[in-house]
């Protein structure tokens, strides 16, 4: 028997957020994006649009989950209450200063959320720009902790101790 904690990890920081009344834009179509797609489907997200920079990889994911494929060039044209970066753009290394989305070009959505599954660095350009646009921001460290909690529960039947989270946050510092 195998377990995948990516779905639980992704959903953990969203808590009781009413995804069934929210439109989402999923940027990316790799393995992590598939977990995000499963989570959005599980929580009954009202409408999900998905796109990738090459305008091809997202077509299979969109078909598999019943989502709407969108051309990369059109990603800023549609309002989305939840914008998720599931691309490697912004990750530590060669794409660290990049972002897949320009919140200044997108329609504003009151109460909107920007969720970057990148966890190194914790503060990406994607999230910095989202914050300036008035979005509530969720970083990849939150998903990481949600995954750790789900794994700990599988193994022990108990929640991850707060001391474990504090120790990891201290170890990560300002990364």
Give an account of the 3D structure:
With 175 residues, this protein is an alpha/beta fold. It has a single domain, classed as Rossmann fold. The chain has helices spanning 6-11, 31-42, 58-65, 125-132, 140-156, 162-172, and strands at 23-27, 47-51, 68-69, 82-85, 113-116, 136-138. A six-stranded parallel sheet has the order 3-2-1-4-5-6, sandwiched between helices. The protein is globular. The model has no long low-confidence stretch (mean pLDDT 94).
Entry keywords:
Rossmann fold, 6 helices, 35% helix, globular
Number of helices: 6
Q: How far is it from the N-terminal to the C-terminal residue, by CA? A: 35 Å
CATH fold assignment:
Rossmann fold
Write down the CATH class.
Answer: Alpha Beta
In short:
With 175 residues, the protein is of the alpha/beta class. It is 35% helix and 13% strand. The mean pLDDT is 94.
């Amino acid at each position: 028997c195998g377990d995948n904690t990516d779905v639980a990890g992704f959903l953990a920081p969203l808590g009781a957020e009413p995804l069934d009344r929210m439109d989402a834009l999923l940027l990316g179509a790799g393995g992590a994006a598939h977990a995000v797609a499963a989570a959005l489907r599980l929580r009954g997200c009202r409408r999900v649009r998905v796109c990738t920079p090459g305008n091809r990889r997202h077509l299979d994911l969109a078909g598999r989950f019943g989502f709407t494929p969108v051309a990369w060039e059109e990603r800023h044209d549609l309002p989305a209450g939840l914008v998720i970066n599931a691309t490697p753009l912004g990750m530590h290394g060669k794409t660290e200063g990049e972002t897949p989305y320009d919140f200044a070009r997108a329609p504003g959505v009151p109460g909107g959320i920007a969720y970057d599954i990148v966890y190194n660095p914790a503060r990406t350009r994607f999230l910095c720009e989202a914050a300036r646009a008035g979005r509530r921001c969720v970083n990849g460290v939150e998903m990481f902790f949600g995954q750790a909690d789900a794994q700990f529960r599988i193994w022990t039947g108990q929640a991850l101790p707060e001391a474990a989270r504090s120790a990891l946050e201290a170890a990560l510092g300002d990364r």
